Amino acid sequence: MLDWKGIVGIAYTPDEFDSYAHALTWTAWRPSFIVLHNTASPTLAQRPNGFTKQHILNLESFFRDKQKWKAGPHLFIDDKQIWAFTPMTMSGVHSPSWNKVSLGFEMLGDYDKDEFDSGRGLRVQKNAVAAVATMSAVLGLNPDSMKLHKEDHLTTHACPGKKVVKSKFIDKVKELLAERHGGEHLDPVSS
Ligand SMILES: [Zn+2]
Fold it and tell me: Are the beta carbons of 157 and 95 closer than 8 angstroms?
């Protein structure tokens, strides 16, 4: 489709992603916050080895040819890697109220059912925390500005599942940012 924005289609480790993201230049568009999603379908069990390149190409075909959207979410994050999908320097399609102002990150799993604090779910969580920390640093975003898809009043999706607790996730992002910046506290610890 002519209007499709294309995909990056490259998998990064969290460290590689950090380097990749710091090298991006923001000319046309600059997102103001991050929206966190989970795929729900597929579940973790349906992707025993995470996403393959073919899965990512299938997702591209789904959004472009079936949904007939101009773009999709910006990242697909699994327990092994961070897949760059719609370029983060362009607006994506993932959350009706917030497409023009936010980045959309999809985590592999259905966290109504899949465990988020152990096993593969925890590894997905760690990669997602790393991606949010990186983009918060790159864009100068306060981690508290992050949103869950289900906070968008225009969506009917209970996304991500209830095992993803926003405050706990944001705390982990802040911890990682503090670690990466030599233990310097970016935000005072509130009582
Ligand atoms: Zn969602």
Answer: no
Q: Is the pLDDT of residue 185 over 80?
A: no
Task: State the distance from the centre of ligand 1 to the C-alpha of 176, rounded, in angstroms.
Answer: 24
Please identify every residue whose CB atom is under 5 Å from ligand 1, which is an ion. 37, 149, 159
CA–centroid distance, 37 to ligand 1, in Å, is 4
CA of 73 to the centre of ligand 1 (A): 9
Q: Which CATH superfamily is domain 10-180 in?
A: Peptidoglycan recognition protein-like (3.40.80.10)
Q: What token pair was written down for 53?
A: 């390149």
Spacing, Cα 156 to ligand 1 middle (Å): 10
In whole angstroms, give the CA distance from residue 169 to residue 125.
8
> What is the distance in A from the centroid of ligand 1 to the CA of 102?
13
For residue 13, the SS3 value is: coil
* Percent residues over pLDDT 70 in the chain: 94
Dist. CA 182 → ligand 1 center (Å): 33
CB 71 within 8 A of CB 5: yes
- Long-range contacts of residues 123-127, Cβ cutoff 8 Å, at least 24 apart: 123/79, 123/80, 124/44, 124/77, 124/78, 124/79, 125/169, 125/172, 126/14, 127/14, 127/77, 127/78, 127/79, 127/80, 127/81, 127/82
pTM: 0.94
